[in-house]
Amino acid sequence: MFSAEELANLGKPLIQLLSVWVSAIVLVFVTRRSLRSGIKRALLDRDKAADSTRRIQRGEALISVGNSSVLVIAVVVAAIMSLGVIGLDLTPLVASVGVFGLAIGLGAQRLVQDFISGILMLIEDQFGVGDIIDVGEAAGLVETVSLRTTRIRALNGTLWHIPNSEIRRVGNMSQQWARAVVDLSVSYESKYDDVVKSIDSAIDILMENEETMAALVERPTVLGIERFAGSSVDIRVLLMTKPANQWMIAREFRKAVKLCFDRDKIEFPFPQLTISQK
Description:
Blueprint: H1 4-46, H2 52-86, H3 90-107, H4 109-124, E1 132-134, E2 139-145, E3 149-153, E4 159-163, E5 171-172, E6 178-186, H5 192-208, H6 210-215, E7 221-228, E8 233-241, H7 246-263
Antiparallel strand pairs: 1-2, 1-5, 2-3, 3-4, 6-8, 7-8
C-alpha cells in the first residue's frame, strides 16, 4: 500500500499533466473562435463591395490554415511541458527535434513556399474562385484556390494545376471593373462624322438592351482615330463593363456596329494595292 506522502507525490505530476493538457485544449478552443471571428470581421470590413462567395472562400481558407497551425503549436508545446513535468531531460530531445526539423524543412522547402504564397495571395485578394486571370503560361477561369495549388480552367477546357510558389505575376481580368477596347476599321472614303454617328447608334442599341445595359458601367466612349493603316482608318471605342463582362459586351457591340454600318452604307475596307506605271 502507498503511504499518504507517496500518493501525494504521485498525484502531483498527474494533476500538473492534466492541467497542462486542459489548458492546451481551452487555449486551442478560444484561439480558434477568436481567429474565426477576427478573420470574418476583417474581411467584412475590408471587402464590403466584394462578392460574398469569394469572400467566404478566402475566409474559410485562412481559418483552416490558422486552426491547423494553432493545433500543431498547442500540441507541441503541451507535449514538451508534459515531458518536463515527468522529469525527463529535454536538452537531448530539443537537439534531436531541431536536427529532425531542419531535415524536414530542407526537404519540404518548396511545400512551405507554396503554403506561404497561398496565404499571401488570399490575404492580399490577388484573385479568387470565379475570376479570370492570366499567370503567364496559363490563363482562364479560377476553379479552386488552396494553400498549395491553384487550378485554372483554360478556354479550351485544359485544367492547369499551378503550385502557388510558381505564380510570379497575376493579371486579373475580372476584378472590380473591366474594359473592352474595340478598334473599328473603316475605308478612307468614309466621312468621319458619319462614322461616329453610326457608332453612336450602335452604342444606343447597347444602352437600350436590358442585358447589355446591366453589364455596362457607363456609356461607351468613342476616343477617335487611333491610326491610319494601309487600307483603313481605325477608330477606337472604349467600353467599361462590370467584371468578366467585357468579352460579351465587345461581341454585342460589334454585332450592333455591323447592323448600323450596313444601314448607313459605311464600308469595312478590304486590303488595297496601288500600282503605278512609269
